[in-house]
Amino acid sequence: MTVSRRAFLKGATLSGGIIRVGLPPLEAMFNANGTAYAAGAAKSAAAIDTRFVFWFNGNGIPEKYWIPRQTGPDYEITPCLKPLAPFRRNIHVVTGLDSPAARVPQPGNSHYPSMSALLTGQPFTGRGAGGASLDQTIAARIGNDSRFRSLQIGVCQESFGESIQRNMSWAARDRPLAAEMLPHRLFDRLFGVREEGWVQRQRSILDAVGQEARELQTRLGSADRSRLDEYLTAVRDLERSIAALPAEYRAVVERPPDGGDLKDWPRIAKLQSDLLVHALASRQTRVASYMLTKCQGLSRFPWLGHTAQRHHEYTHGQVETPRGMRILRDICRWHVEEFAYLLARLRATPEGDGTLLDSTCLLFVHEHAEANSHKNNNLAVILAGGAGGLKTGLHTRTTGTLGDLYLTLADEIMKAGAGGFPTAGRKLVEVV
Amino acid sequence: MRRFLAPALLCVWFTGGVAQPAPSAMRRLTHSQYNHTVRDLLGDPSRPADQFPKEDFVHGFTNQSAGQSLSPLLAEAYNRAAEKLARNAFRGGDGRGLVGCRPAGPADAACRERFIRTFGRRAFRRPLTQEEASRYSRIHREESLRAGDFLRGSQLVVEVMLQSPHFLFHLEEGSAPESYRIASRLSYFLWDSMPDEELFADADAGRLAAPGGIRATAERLLASERARLAMDEFLAQWIRFDRLRNAIRDRRLYPEFTAELVEAMFEETRRLFRSLAWEDRNFTEFFTADYAFLSSSLASLYRLPAPAEEFDRVPLPADSGRAGILGQATFLTLTSKPVDTSPTERGLFIREHFLCQIVPPPPPGIDTTLAALTDEKPMTTRQRLAVHLTNPACAGCHQLVDPIGFGFEAFDAIGRGRQKEVVTIYPTQDELVRRVKTKPAEHRLSIDSSGRVEGWPEPAFSSPRELGAKLAANPACQRCVVRQLFRWAAGRRETAADQEAIAAAFERFRASQFRFRELIIAIVTSPRFHGG
To answer: What's this model's pTM, rounded to 2 decimal places?
Structure first.
């Protein structure tokens, strides 16, 4: 099979733009077919896009099992970080980050302000996050040429149900972007069969809908206008994403089954990671968020043997007892395991002269440090990947804020030109 | 920080009368409204919105404008649902009679015009404007000529309309004549669905222009079973049934806690609410009812004789300590944890849901671990929580909540009565290895169930029944019922501008001896609701 790497699906959208859906790098997608894509790779290596993945799990970490004692390149891997041992050279553990916006008093429990501050650098509004989240700040600037400006992917669903707990991507203040939680639906979105005739029909339908919404815009007050604008944006995004994918896609990406145990979180997590890697490899998006568990999540862990309580209760139970600490260690090691799985898949996907991991920047965060005390200074995060000269192979203790880190990632690594981020005062030279 | 260390009463954030920027009045259909609307509009019972991205809770409900984001994922879901609904509507012809005339051919203009006007009025819940009618007519004509089939045009029109903002949103200004907006507000609040033909006729005839007309219409809608189902949903969200549905219990301690028992708990709560609301009883009995609607499983949990029929009304003996919602397993369970009760959660729930107060979270950096339990010094939950009231960083707020919860300590984490708190201490790994302790030790500790409501002139109580009587007589609690229903009806938290309307609704509620139906009427006839 010969498919040029630069083969794009082209189609004019109604707004006049060109959508371009790149074909997947073949080595990655056609395991059996070998090296069709290698020949032209070297010369286009410079053109490879960087990707960004914002990766979250809830309820913080047991610091003593998680944070390495030593800084620099020779730190000893901690029990929770053990699954990342094969990726030492690809990751950068950054600790000591402050999150000042989390300490602006607001109603609601302690997780809410921490979550808002973690994602957006802005205080919780009493309803939702205080602004655009990091991934959306980046996507707004680098996502517009992709089929999907950004993707929101979720895994574990158990939560107390509040907006701030269930969402990690926020388009703007109080405007959450829901995540796709079911692998077969995510597959259909990315790789579902779309016939040409269907595409044309959908385009004309959305054109009519858009026209109606725009007419209505002129008659509304400003508050309502912004709400309708949100819908128009979503319709435009949908318009852009409607495309007839080349048949090659169907041959390479297997559709996850509809059924199976949809609460078997390790299985779902891996299916979602697989699809995320395919989406990034096939250039359908450059920016994604991945929410393994919910903020203040209530997941249970039968595969770890911890079923008497749920995650949040474990973080406030008898955490000071050795048994309580061991339970949290097991849980957080599982989170890291799933993160490591994603890194492994990215590393196993060739692109240009290297791998997809080389052109990706991943940031793994939690809303708290130690969750029992709802601590939101001295936060610990993991950076991974080789995009844009990210410095890896280190544990760094810093005194910067999350905003400092985010600004550095957005502008130095992802070249998004954000120019600033709430709570950012300086760029963190330690990570570039 | 000052706020957390301030005297207790300053800790509570009273939310009434807070000036806020004018919120967008524009709400989208909730998922439940979407399901009911396509059922009534298209005769399609498939509940497509169950597959949409789940709705989030904001301000205690999932129907709040502030929580209704429009993500690309939701727009895609609308798109997919519209495609499927439109296709099914015309599968094998016009089986559901949506077109309403027999087209002479693909280009039958009269039939097309008629379909667009009648269906459009029902889909947009108001008559179409001339421009809209001609736009849809064009869409219809092109498609039916292209496909050589009149119904293909109709299908496309339906598919577009189902994605139009005029269908998906409750539009307030600049769109519909007022009487149609009122009709929609009434039907979505009272039926959770679109207006029926009779309500459209009321709007056509201008009968909704005066409060008297609104009242008569509201009473007609309230007489329908649909109103009961719609208010059941208000109840389920107000009392946060979702938390009970997602609750888990340690099986070693609570083997009787099953999904069936949880369903029985919901049913008990629903039956009490329905009996008060629809039999026009005094709604303050929600807190004081000395009777209950029990399944045999609940009767056994409460240690009462089984009812003759499932969910028959049975008396609650005074010495049971139970009365109303506070004595129900629903409340007692959803505010507990997998192993223990949570006096903090119980107190917090009462402050937030029944008194409409907001208690701020603990300041960050506080270690919330309670003293570890040892066989040498076993402690009751109350004893372990004592630190909340002695540590000044905690006490400011916790004295508002924990002492309320202490009054419920005679009921365990699934709502069973108890004389003693059984504290089970499992052997640690170390003890198991050293074989100094191999079996869990059970300690049976005496319970102190004296509670108090900080800030009340007569704060002391010692059972759900005693607190229920105090709540029922408390104007703040009575007003809170009004505020919760207002939030549900308006889809937003009340603002300063709503205070007068809420006060007026409260007066009518009280003057009617707290008839819930009268409260509903007071809300729908308020200018803040119908916007007149």
So the answer is: 0.90
Task: Please determine, for residue B261, whether its predicted confidence score (pLDDT) is greater than 70.
Answer: yes
Contact (CB<8Å) A152/B73: yes
Nearest beta carbon to residue A372 from set B58, B166, B368: B368
Distance CA A309, CA B343 (A): 18
CA B323 – CA B290 distance, rounded (Å): 5
Helix (H) or strand (E) holding B355: none
Whether residue B125 is predicted with pLDDT greater than 80 in this model: the reply is: yes
Three-state DSSP class for residue A364: strand
For A372, half-sphere exposure in the C-beta direction (CA atoms, 13 angstrom radius) is 17
Chain B residues touching residue A176 (CB < 8 angstroms): 56, 69, 71
How large is the ipTM?
0.87
Angle between helical axes of B109-124 and B150-161 (0-180°, round to 10): 20
CA A199 to chain centre: 28
β-bridge partners, B502: none
Query: Could you tell me how many residues make up chain B?
Result: 532
In DSSP terms, B293 is beta-bridged to B313
On whether any CB of chain A is under 8 Å from the CB of B56, the answer is yes
Interface test with A, best of B12, B14, B24, B352 (most A CBs within 10 A): B24
Tens of pLDDT, residue by residue over A309-334, are 899 988 887 666 778 888 999 999 99
CA distances from B462 to B344, B413, B451, B497 (A): 16, 17, 5, 39
A185 Cα to chain B: minimum distance (Å):
10
Q: What is the pLDDT of residues B344-358, one digit of tens each?
A: 999 999 999 999 998
Query: In this model, does residue B321 exceed pLDDT 90?
Result: yes
If you average pLDDT over residues B458-475, what whole number do you get? Answer: 97
CA atoms within 13 A on the CB side of B71: 28
Cross-chain residue pair B67–A175, CB shorter than 8 Å: no
Give the Cα-Cα-Cα angle A375, A330, A111 (nearest 5 degrees): 25
Q: Which residues pair with B442 in a beta bridge?
A: B424
CA dihedral A82, A87, A92, A94 (to 10 degrees): -20
Please say whether the beta carbons of B271 and B279 come within 8 A.
no
The DSSP letter of residue B335 is T
**Residues of chain B contacting A237 with CB distance shorter than 8 Å:** 72, 75
pLDDT digits (tens, 9 = 90+) for B133-173: 999 999 999 999 999 999 999 999 999 999 999 999 998 76
CB-based contact B351:B335 (threshold 8 Å): no
pLDDT in tens, A126-135: 889 999 999 9
Q: Would you tell me which residues 230-269 of chain B have a C-beta closer than 8 angstroms to some C-beta of chain A?
A: 242-243, 246, 248, 250, 252
- Chain A residues touching B257 at Cβ < 8 A: none
pLDDT digits (tens, 9 = 90+) for A257-288: 877 888 899 999 999 999 999 999 988 999 99
Cross-strand bridge partners of residue A395: A72, A93
Name residue A151's beta-bridge partners: A288
Determine the residue type at A126.
Answer: G
> What is the pLDDT, as a whole number, of residue B34?
98
Q: Cα angle vertex B298, ends B294, B300, to 5°?
A: 115
Task: Please tell me the distance from the alpha carbon of residue B333 to that of residue B294, in angstroms, as a whole number.
Answer: 16
DSSP state of B354: I
The strand pairing partners of B460, in sequence order, are B452
CA distance B298 to chain A (A): 24
Q: Can you tell me the distance from the alpha carbon of A352 to that of A374, in angstroms, rounded to the nearest whole number?
A: 44
Q: Do A128 and B175 count as a contact with CB atoms less than 8 A apart?
A: no
- Pairs from A45-50 (Cβ < 8 Å, separation ≥ 24): A45/A352, A45/A353, A48/A351, A48/A352, A48/A359, A49/A283, A49/A286, A49/A359, A50/A142, A50/A286, A50/A359, A50/A360, A50/A361, A50/A387, A50/A388, A50/A413, A50/A414, A50/A415
Nearest residue to A189 via CA among A261, A136, A240, A135: A240
